[in-house]
Amino acid sequence: MSGNIYIGIAYLSIRKGGLGRGAIIGLDGVPHGLVEDLAHRGVMPNFRELLDEGVLKPMRSSIPAVSAVSWSSMMTGANPGVHGVYGYTEFLPGTYVVAYHSSRWLRAPPLWRRDPSRRYVIINLPATYPAGEVNGVLISGFVAPDLERAVYPRELLGELRELNYKVDVDYVRASSSPLLLFKELAETLKTRVEVCRRLVERLKWDVLIFVVTGTDRLEHFLWDAYRDEGHEWHGEFLEYFRHVDEAIGEVVNLLGEDDALMIISDHGMEHLEVDVNLNRLLEDWGYLKLENEPKRSYNAIRHGTKAFALDPSRIYLNRVGHYPRGSVEKGDEERLLGELTELLQDLRWRGRRVIRRVYRREELYHGDAVDKAPDLVLVPEEGFNLRAGLFREEAFEEGELSGKHTEWDALLYVRGVERDALPESPSIEDVLPLFQRLMEGEPS
Amino acid sequence: MKLHNAHKTCWNCPAAILKGNVDFRACGQSLEAIRRRIEREGLLIECARLPDLGHFEPTITFEECPEWRPTKYGYLLENMRVMILGIDGYLGWTLALKLGALGCEVSGVDCFLRRKMVRELGTDSVVPIYPMEERLKAAKEVLDIDIKFREINILDREKLGQFMREVQPEAIVHYGEIPSAPYSMIDCNHAIQVQYNNVIGTLGLLFLMKEICPESSLIKLGTLGEYGAPLTGRPLFEGLFPADAVLRWRGREWSLGGELTPRDPVSFYHVSKVQDTFNIYEACKYWWLRSYDVMQGVIYGVHTDEVAADPRLRTRLDVDEWFGTVVNRFVAQAILGMPLTVYGEGEQIRGFIALEDAMECMVRLISSPPEPGQYDVVNQVSGLHKVSELAETVARVAAEFGYDVKIQRVENPRVEADYHPFEVVSTKLPNELGFTPKVPLEVEIRRMFELLTQPHIVERIRKVAHLIRPRTWWSGEKKVVETLEVYRPGTRRRRGFKPRLITDRERFPVSKVEEVERAVEAIGGGEGGDGNKG
Ligand SMILES: NC(=O)c1ccc[n+]([C@@H]2O[C@H](COP(=O)([O-])OP(=O)(O)OC[C@H]3O[C@@H](n4cnc5c(N)ncnc54)[C@H](O)[C@@H]3O)[C@@H](O)[C@H]2O)c1
After folding, report:
1. In Å, how far are A84, A129, A211, A239, A377 from A139, measured between CA atoms?
2. Which of A133, B63, B266, B310 could bridge across to B6 with cysteines, CB 3.0–4.6 Å?
3. Which CATH class is domain B79-522?
4. Burial of A62 (C-beta count, 10 Å sphere; 0-12/13-18/19+)
5. What residue numbers bound the domain in which A123 lies?
6. Domain coordinates of chain B in residue numbers?
7. Active site residue B223
8. Could A299 and B61 be called an inter-chain contact, meaning their C-beta atoms sit closer than 8 Å?
9. Is ipTM over 0.90?
10. Same domain as A330, residue A226
């Protein structure tokens, strides 16, 4: 547990004997720099005020930097090697059938199971679907196909339905028109805050987790509208963050002054320049062999395939014994990984380096769940959006979206501490231990 | 060699509940997306049968999936829940037993409308049929088949909906309509009754399916009569024009590919079927239901192994002018020593299929569901025949049984062309669904003679003999048709057009059919559908 090293040092000096309550507000996909910028520009006045009462720092996300992995790290305080979640997708065991994330994948206990004596109100936390039992309330966030199973206890369902509570904006509607996107974003946020207010006022609770996902959605579609002041949707972009700031204000108002408060994001965001289709590259390089049957998805993998990629940047060897058409023998693994690393490191687009770093699994992950980990995980250079891209014709494609995740500049805000109280370079795995210390109001 | 539906995937499977579409690049989730079919990537399903798999991509083939078992009609979903609407009818009952024997969980509804109509017209099935209660008991006793039956009028949407919710069918076979052209031409009331019952029944069913079981496939019975018989000789395609069909007009050209072909129904009953076709087509488009609209030829015959297993399991057979179909009527006439009545010139050509073959087609269609949103049409025929030639064939077989039979031409009470070209395309069942007709016309006619010549049945035929000769005219008149000519079989000069059935068999030659059958044997897929996967 690398995150625990600095815990126990007497850094929580200004919080005195806490009441044991605390809140985490999550802002999905919001980079540290954006909040700092908008707080100072007057778009996020509530956040501006909070800055005076605590510390804001950039935070390292998980690798890969996708919500399923990073929120799993956050809620368990553990490394993917321990909690076992490496992405939104995995194959069903022994097949090439792509399964989507389920909370059952989690191999390490999240905080509400570690400490079931506390009472929780958890709203819109990603990667918790289907919602399991909790001492309190849990409403899962993205991906959550059925609201019924996204809610614990079920009795809440009627009320949520009445409020037209939505787990997520409908991205098809959203991508059909920015007007619809902004409308969906505003409505979704509004009901989410309303649900939070009702629950917090009605229930006895010790821990509140409230996550906004609209931020991530908006940035994906219209990151450029943030950066470019002349952009036709610039005003609306800021307007949404004004709403988010109001939401933060409302949630903070529900807390007591002595309640611990952290505001975090799970990863950062930056301008997306070009999509990079990893499976296209693997095919071009002769490592991946596919039947020409896009409908079959990964089931189209043929014998002779040495490696394939899963979203967003995970590469797996097609091992004999692991997969139906496994074609990599034990003895060949090292050589193949070496070859692939070299090819990936040398990859260029218009003269620019594409991959910043190729990690071996053992460099990133440690724990009992490492056996499920990808063999290689890639971190791209700025602007490159890595994705599996099965059955794509081109390796490099003009970006379909405007923003993409980053690994290094998630945000971490802690109320009531001083700068040196936080780790030098905090990571998302540090959030939970930090939060627990904060709530306990560990005296100096 | 693979079974015809081995390559189909969860995408076709009724147990796959569509959960929407996830775009991880945009970190977005949408149920709408699958309806609009914008992105194939990231399509999410849950398996109703294997919920522990969580959510996954619909890419498992029937061959790979443990829930689909090989049978000689292709992979079949284990204990597949099939609901038959109109289960008390000629085809419904026969199919229920066949599916039951294959291991399906069969349920069905009927309001006994057919029995009532027949009674009102003073006629009856010449093969004795038993009350539903006894049918169900016999099915259990003799074949060990449990059928879940409810007496429900399809028009009673509330009751039907309740039953559908209870059963959660994975396929629905819709036979529950009034099947008779002459009946619909009796008078205004009958025309309205037929259209209301058929059209509104089906429309209501579509709404219920959307609500309750959008994943299940609808196998709906239309009829080849929906197309009519175009005098231009244009082939009767399978519902939609093929990709290379072209319309040329004033020097300009358009592709017709994918458009519904023209319909030219030949009675108010047939109009109801055409209306159904459009309603189903739209429902597939709006709500992503999936359906095979089966343009079925005229059915003849009495035999399947299951209905023949016990007298209480027999299915109905009618020979009166309203509900009797032509071959069935000819056989009855032959047995009574009446001349076989051919309408008009007898040069009309129609598509036909034996009961047993039709049942096999249905099983294959049930086992090979269309994709979500797919409206597909199959022409279900095994042979095209002229009415006068059918009379000759029946007469020939009758002679084997010692009956000396004449043929008589009578006035044609219908409005139809006596002479017309007739070319039918039926390529999907033989090629995509692996169907080969197994019952030649003579063979089934022989089976009919064997059954219908039993004394108690002859007695029943005699009772309705006066209702065989038609008196329902398309003009609205009510008068018995007059005889125009009586002749001995084999003496009439052949005239008119030669029918043409296009099956594209060459794409699926007989040697391959045999290969498939061997493959089926190899995997041990018998009727019971209990074969194991290799
Ligand atoms: N028999 C053929 O030659 C033939 C040819 C082409 C198409 N078809 C079609 O196949 C289907 C079945 O034909 P069949 O010969 O078995 O007819 P059938 O009359 O023997 O069977 C239909 C059954 O549906 C029931 N039914 C009708 N309306 C109902 C309602 N509203 N609610 C509940 N039950 C209802 C009837 O009581 C009857 O038992 C029909 O749609 C028919 O048009 C038949």
Report:
1. 22, 8, 10, 26, 31
2. B63
3. alpha beta
4. buried
5. 2-271+404-440
6. 1-68, 79-522
7. yes
8. yes
9. no
10. no
